[in-house]
Amino acid sequence: MSVARWSIQSKLIALALFPALIALVVGAALVGIEDRRRLRADLMKNQSLIARVAGDYAALALAFDDPVEAETALRPVTELDGMRDVLLFDQAGELFYGWHVGPVPRHRRVPSLGSMIRAGLVQTSVPVIFDGRPRGTMVLVASTAAVDEEINRRLLTLALLVLGLSALALALGAGLQGYISRPLVALAGVARRVSREGDLTLRVEPRGDDELADLYRGFNAMLEEIEGRQAELERRQAELMRSNRDLDQFAYVASHDLKAPLRAIATLSTWIEEDLAADAGDQTREQLALLRSRVGRMDRLIDGLLQYSRVGREDLPVERVEVTSVVEQAVELLSPPPEVEISIGPDLPTLSARRLRLQQVFINLIGNAIKHADRDGVKIEIRAEDVGDGCWQLSVSDDGPGIDPKHHERIFRMFQTLDVGKHSESTGLGLALVAKIVEEEGGEMWLESALGEGATFYTLWLEQSASIGQSTAPMPAA
User: Fold this and answer.
1) Measured CA distances, 94 to 86, 88, 102, 136, 454 (Å)
2) What is d(CA 227, CA 231) in angstroms, rounded to the nearest whole number?
3) DSSP characters over 428-440
4) Neighbouring residues of 161: CB distance < 8 A, sequence distance ≥ 6
5) Model confidence over 313-341: pLDDT tens digits?
6) Does the reported pTM lie above 0.70?
């Protein structure tokens, strides 16, 4: 398991234990190495002293060529613990006297002077001096078993000491970390409960007056602030829902009350025209037709305002929508003249969106291109492009008269129309409605056009709809 997934208790114990353990191990190793070096140095020093004393006792035997005297003088040395070879060489380098453990002595020739340890044995060679003249060489070879045993004993003692101190450090670390970890664990537990249960009334009780207590108080203050803001948000949401209900009711009543007189005016104008019959002149008939046209435009304006006000407040389901199907339905609803050529791209995507809103967008954009065409046989193209990051760029382009760049921002505002005289029935709400729908769905909208070069309206749609419609009371059609 990676360190990142350790609990806070384990991390604090490791933080306290590992440095202490490393220090203990390194310290014990250094002490063991120094002890081993010192004990071996003392062994060689002591054996060198013994060799010099033994050489002094055997010098007379060398001087008078008396091996028996040499054996007598060196017998005490052969009885020392761990002694393996006691060798006395004459000045010519020949073995004068030899005592050894084993079938043969380890040296038949004089080794170099000095002391050395090798293969569990310490070897010492010193000159034998008598009457101020060198008479030969004294060689001692002894086992290092006693020293090695002492070294091992000390190393074992150090290892036990390290283990004991490590256990003590672990116990102290486990005890002390609780003063830090327990408050943090308690804080994390409360935070998890707040996250899972959404209970903002939970609090942690600060203890002491250290930084952890300050953390507790800050956490509690944060919960209090969030609780207050949530209460305020819920209050405002309730007010907004009530306001939306009132607005929906008002919109329904207002549209009904406004449309009733309009219907009466349209009906009366028809009756008047019928009553006048042959007595009505062309001008009178034209004016009555204009009156009914204006009444129809007012009726559509009221419908447009209702649609605009409902965007973002209707509880429409998000579903998988084939854009090709939506475009085909929009074209069918518009019933364009046969001379209008509409081309639907083969690469239109399938989106998670609100079908009705997407359909409203295409109905308005395609209808706009048809309505503002400056000639018969206008060509309209619907295309799509995957621009990455879960976004699709949908476009509706035409080869109509185009739009002057100075009007590109204006046409997306409410009640703004171009060529009012030519298209007197336009309410000026279509593009404003489209822009609001696209914005509510988390997308963007823009226009590329110039006079005489046609127009292309681009909408950027998320593959997954970003907005969440608010439930509102259903409104009957006015």
Assistant:
1) 14, 9, 20, 9, 122
2) 6
3) S-HHHHHHHHHHH
4) 28
5) 566 788 899 999 999 988 888 888 888 89
6) no
